[in-house]
Amino acid sequence: MTALDVQVNSADPACPGQAPLLPVVGTGIEVPLVTGDSLPYANLDYAASAPSLQSVADHLSEVLPYYASVHRGAGYTSQVCTALYEGARADVAAFLGARPDDVVIFTRNTTDALNLLARCVPDDGPGGGRVTFLDIEHHANLLPWRRGQHRCVLAGTTQRATLVSLRAELEARPASLLAITGASNVTGEVLPLAEIVELAHAAGARVVLDAAQLAPHRRIDLASSGVDYVALSGHKLYAPFGAGVLAGRRDWLDEAPAYLPGGGAVREVTLTHTEWAAAPQRHEGGTPNVLGAATLAQAARTLSQLPSGALEAHEEALRTALTDRLNRLPGVRTLRIWRDSTTSIGVVAFTVDGYAPGLVAAYLSAEHGIGVRDGKFCAHPLLSRLGAPEGAVRASFGVGTTLDDVERLAAAVEQLVTSGPRWSYDVVDGRWAPTPDPRGLPDWAVSTTGAADRGTSPCEPLTA
Ligand SMILES: Cc1ncc(COP(=O)(O)O)c(C=O)c1O
């Protein structure tokens, strides 16, 4: 299969959600239950990390034999990989609708991309280096800005009121940059980007879009939207191979100090002087992640080939099916920031009265073979304002998800609400877990020098 020959499912467009929209790796894997049975895994954790598209895995297999260093190698495979890497940059630029002078920098992920941009905001331009953002943001779009001059605006109970507050803030205290998410990683609500860009530009501020969640679900067009910078993660875009992107206007990126001083970021070095390269190389010091970039670009090409509206219709069918059922269950509350938001991506967070979110997630995994995320989703201020300071459960989905997956989740939550769990659960090493937990891990996942360490999340303190 060649890079452009990807399989788009011909699922009946009249019945969105019945079948996966695109093939993803891992569909149908059986996972063990605490009862000793097994079930096909229902992966409803796409917002944390999405599975690899099949086309991405195929592309990886195709290019892997040619893997070599880029830019400085004269060997044939180095030339192949250099073309692959720079071609990936061009294809990502096309995917993002970049302007001719925009720069695409490969990073590790969205967090890395936003930290990089935080070092590039000039202090001497309009806005004096100040960055303004909302309190609903993921920590990745909040903490990097707090190192410098910043203002955090509290979102209102409607998007309308939120825009009024943003406009008032930017008029009262001009900013260099407005940092805004495209879609909430907690509720999935999509922000009114066109109006936000308009009000920011009217106040002289540039806009950076945190598209970690938006990019896998909606087309982004830098040129037509006027968004100045965009950050995204390959692992949320069906290319889980360690690359992310910061793309946008060249001037700030060319003028800022190199993000990772080292080999590749320079034109010339003497013992006393360094002549730095222009962006993107200026900020890509060290050996680049060629395969990460190539697979991210392959995911972008594949998603671009989806018929217009197909992704939106697929996800809306899943989302409606899930929220309709959850909202009918007593004691189950789906979370929402705004009363007037009109569109959402495939992310649904909810709480269940009487059950800690971690327990619900452990139950769904142990008794139903369903993977969701629980906790505060690295958005602690938002969870507090939503009245869920202990966290919530989040189901998230995408091109590989079907109605069957979300119906399994709804049925499992209904069973919890009506009959309770059938196994016992306790907090083990800081996380809710079935006790006992007879499920083993595959041999290859377990350390050969000790017992399996399932790890704890540094972001999510215990919610017992
Ligand atoms: C909205 C949003 N922004 C930023 C991030 C950070 O992404 P990464 O962990 O890939 O850097 C996430 C991750 O969940 C996110 O949901």
Automatic annotation (TrEMBL):
<dbReference type="GO" id="GO:0016829">
    <property type="term" value="F:lyase activity"/>
</dbReference>
<feature type="region of interest" description="Disordered">
    <location>
        <begin position="434"/>
        <end position="464"/>
    </location>
</feature>
<comment type="similarity">
    <text>Belongs to the class-V pyridoxal-phosphate-dependent aminotransferase family. Csd subfamily.</text>
</comment>
<dbReference type="InterPro" id="IPR020578">
    <property type="entry name" value="Aminotrans_V_PyrdxlP_BS"/>
</dbReference>
<dbReference type="InterPro" id="IPR015421">
    <property type="entry name" value="PyrdxlP-dep_Trfase_major"/>
</dbReference>
<feature type="domain" description="Aminotransferase class V">
    <location>
        <begin position="43"/>
        <end position="409"/>
    </location>
</feature>
<keyword id="KW-0456">Lyase</keyword>
<dbReference type="GO" id="GO:0031071">
    <property type="term" value="F:cysteine desulfurase activity"/>
</dbReference>
<keyword id="KW-0663">Pyridoxal phosphate</keyword>
<dbReference type="InterPro" id="IPR015424">
    <property type="entry name" value="PyrdxlP-dep_Trfase"/>
</dbReference>
<dbReference type="InterPro" id="IPR000192">
    <property type="entry name" value="Aminotrans_V_dom"/>
</dbReference>
<dbReference type="Pfam" id="PF00266">
    <property type="entry name" value="Aminotran_5"/>
</dbReference>
<protein>
    <submittedName>
        <fullName>Selenocysteine lyase/cysteine desulfurase</fullName>
    </submittedName>
</protein>
<dbReference type="InterPro" id="IPR015422">
    <property type="entry name" value="PyrdxlP-dep_Trfase_small"/>
</dbReference>
